[in-house]
Write a structure and sequence with these properties.
The chain is α/β, with parallel strands linked by helices and 207 residues long. Helices cover 48% and strands 15% of the residues. It has one domain: Alpha-Beta Barrel (TIM Barrel). α2 runs parallel beside α3 and α2 runs parallel beside α9.
């Protein structure tokens, strides 16, 4: 495996918690990202549903955090994200056209999958970690079921992850978890300080 790709994957697995940032504006996304970083989160997925998301990449470029791009639906967006500084690319479902582009630049591609068929296609496309999405109505034991026929599948559940069930997912074999709605709710109700505190709680639970 390419050393750059291996390094990025290792950082994702070490981070354990990936903050999925969906801001109503670039300013909000920057503040929410900085709250997550201050709380100890070391990997952030900046979604392309955020207006002017390139400004968020620029603002966070010097932060000690692994930046990735989410809600990537096509190769044009994937390339834009990579040029903006994204070190991993995430899609809500498997987009076969994105895999070769990411492989070309040694950037991990994490497509959203819920079925074995999608997971097999993702593996064939070169994905090392699969985003189990949405994970809201899936039991953590699903990972063991997946790893029966597909023992080399590594999973990052996203959607419905919270402080109460995060440990269940990690114990069940998830390499990391993606959190988003929790952070947005904390920020909406208590601002920057509340988002920092929630991020700290997630990282304390990981430790």
């Amino acid at each position: 495996m390419n050393l750059l790709r291996y390094s990025i994957l290792s950082q994702l697995e070490s981070a354990k918690v990936i903050a999925v940032i969906r801001g109503g504006s670039a300013k909000e996304a920057i503040e929410l990202s900085r709250a997550a970083i201050e709380g100890g989160i070391r990997a952030i997925e900046l979604t392309y549903t955020t207006p002017q998301v390139e400004k968020v990449f620029d603002a966070l470029a010097q932060e000690d955090v692994l930046l990735g791009a989410g809600s990537v639906l096509d190769t044009e967006t994937a390339r834009h994200a990579i040029l903006a500084g994204a070190k991993f690319i995430v899609s809500p479902s498997y987009m076969k056209e994105i895999s070769p582009l990411c492989n070309r630049y040694s950037i991990p591609y994490l497509p959203g999958c819920t079925t074995l068929r999608e997971m097999v296609k993702s593996l064939e496309g070169g994905s090392d970690i699969i985003k189990l999405f949405p994970a809201n109505n899936i039991d953590p034991s699903f990972i063991k079921s997946i790893n029966g026929p597909l023992p080399n599948v590594r999973v990052m559940p996203t959607g419905g992850i919270n402080l109460n069930n995060m440990s269940d997912w990690l114990t069940a074999g998830a390499v990391a978890v993606g959190i988003g709605s929790d952070l947005n709710k904390a920020y909406a109700s208590g601002g920057f300080a509340a988002a920092v505190e929630l991020s700290r709680k997630y990282m304390e639970k990981v430790r």
